[in-house]
Amino acid sequence: MFHILLADDEKMALLSTEHSLPFSAHHMAVTVRTSDSLEALRLLETRFIDAAFLDIRMPGLSGLDIIQKCREQPFCPRFIVVSGYSDFAYMKQAIQLGAFDYCLKPIQSEEADALLRRLEEELCQSRMQNGPDMLRRLSDPGTQTEFLRYLGFAEPADSLTVIAVLAAHLSDLWKMELPEQSFLIPMDGHRAVLLTAAGPGEADALAERLLELPECRLAVGNLDPSAGQLGKLLEQLQTDLRLTNSEKPVIRSVLNASNDAFGRLLEEVRTQYRQELSLQTLAQKYNLSYSYCSELFKAATGFTFSKYINQLRLTTAAELLRNSQQSVADICYQVGYHNYHHFVGMFKSYFNLTPTEYRQQGGHADAPLH
Question: CA 260, CA 53: separation in Å to the nearest integer?
Answer without folding.
Answer: 52
